[in-house]
Amino acid sequence: VIGVFDSGVGGLSVLREIRSLLPSADMVYLADQANAPYGERSLDEVRSLAEKAAGHLIERGAGTVVVACNTASAAALQHLRRTHPGTAFVGMEPAVKPAAAATRTGVVGVLATPTTFQAEVLDGLVGRFAEGVEVIPHPCPGWASLIEDHGADTHPEAIAREVMPLVDAGADTLVLACTHYSFVSGRIAEVAGPGVTIVDPALPVARQVARVAEASGSGATTYLTTGDPERLAGQIRHLLGVEAAPEGLST
Amino acid sequence: VIGVFDSGVGGLSVLREIRSLLPSADMVYLADQANAPYGERSLDEVRSLAEKAAGHLIERGAGTVVVACNTASAAALQHLRRTHPGTAFVGMEPAVKPAAAATRTGVVGVLATPTTFQAEVLDGLVGRFAEGVEVIPHPCPGWASLIEDHGADTHPEAIAREVMPLVDAGADTLVLACTHYSFVSGRIAEVAGPGVTIVDPALPVARQVARVAEASGSGATTYLTTGDPERLAGQIRHLLGVEAAPEGLST
Predict the structure, then answer these.
(1) What ipTM does the predicted assembly reach?
(2) pTM value surpassing 0.90
(3) Gap from A137 CA to chain B (nearest CA, Å)
C-alpha cells in the first residue's frame, strides 16, 4: 500500500501521477483538511501534524508514505524517517536543479508557502545545484487556501499578484514548490507568458515513488517447502550461505 | 509481499537476485520439493502443481508471484494469469534474445528440462529473436535432481555429458533455461571452456520483478480526510475528474 498525505488537495496532483505509473497499486490518500493550510503554521506544528498523518497511513498498511506537501516535507521528512525506520518516505523539495538547468536568463523564481521558506531547505539546494543562477524565493500566502476552495478556477488576479514580480525581475523559469500550485500551473503559464518555463515536480516525484515503493517491507524472507524443512535449510545454507528456518507445508 | 516458487531450490538463484535489488521487500519462497522434479512430469501435472503453489503464496499475501521455474512457466504461466487476474505473475523463459545477440559462431545451445522443451515456448522465441542463428535445444534429464542433492558440487562428469555435445556442435553461447542450472554455472563454464558465454536469466528476471512488484495491487484508491468528506469528494471531482467516497477521520 502506498500512502500519500497533504494538508488538503495539493497532493492529489502527485497521487494522479503515481496512479498513472502504477495503475494497480493500492493507495490511500489522506487530506488533513481540518488543519489546512500547513504553509502558514510554525515548523513545529507542521511536524506534529505530519507525524499524526503518517501514523494514520501506516495504520492503514502503507509501507511507503509520500509526503505530498512541500511544507510538511521541509518540516518533518528527516524526523519521520528517524521515527519510522520501517517505512519508506518520499518527500517534496523545490526542484531547483532542473530549473537551474533550464533557465537561459539565469533567474529562477521559486513559488512556495511562507513556512516552506522558513525551513531553509532552499539554501542547501541553491548551493548545491544553482551556482551562478539567481534564485528568488517568493512566498505566496493564501494560495493553498484559494486552491482548496477554487481549484483550477482560482482567480487570475491572485495568481498575477505573485507571479508578475518574478517575471519583472527577469525570471524565465518558475519552480512550483507547493503541490497545490500544480492545479493552477495552466493559469501561472498564462499569466507569465510563453517565454517562461514552469517546473512541476509531481511527475519526477511519482517516478521516485515507483522506484522505492516495493522496497518498503521489513526485508523478511519466509521459506516454505512441501518436502522436508530441515533438508531445505541445509540446501539454503549450502547454496545461499544463509541460515533459515523453513516451514513445512502440508499439501 | 513477493512470492517465489519452484519445484525445489532452483528458484533460490532468482530469489537471491531479487533480494539484492529489493533489500527490504517481504518475500515468501515456496519449494515444492514433495513434487520435485517438475521437469520430467507431464505439462498437465505441472500446471496443476503450479496452480497449487501459486495459491499457497497468494494466501500468504503475495501480490506478485514469481514462477522461478522454467518448466512451470512454460506449462502454466498463461493459465495462472487467467485464473488469478488480481496477481502479477513473472515467469522464466529461455533467454534466446540475448544469446542470439551474443553468439559469434551463430550457434546457441539451450539447456533445459525435457518438459520445458515439450511446451514449445522455444519455437516462438527462436522465430522472433534468433533469425539466422542455429538454436540447439538440449534436454538435461536428471540435472535438476542432481542439483537438488549436490548443489554447486554436482559432479563435473554429469555436466560434461550434456554440455560437450553442444560445444562440439559449435555453440559459443549456452542458455540456462532451468533455474536450477544457475547453481552449476561455474561448473558449466569450466567444462565448456573460456570461449563460451553462459546466459543466466536470474538477474534480468529479478529486474522485471522489481518493476512489476509494486504494480500488483487491486488499483484501489482510498481517500481519507480529517475535514468534511463531502467537500473532499467535490474537490476530487473538480480536480481529478473522478467520483470518490472519502472517509472522514476523527482526529
Answers:
(1) 0.71
(2) no
(3) 27
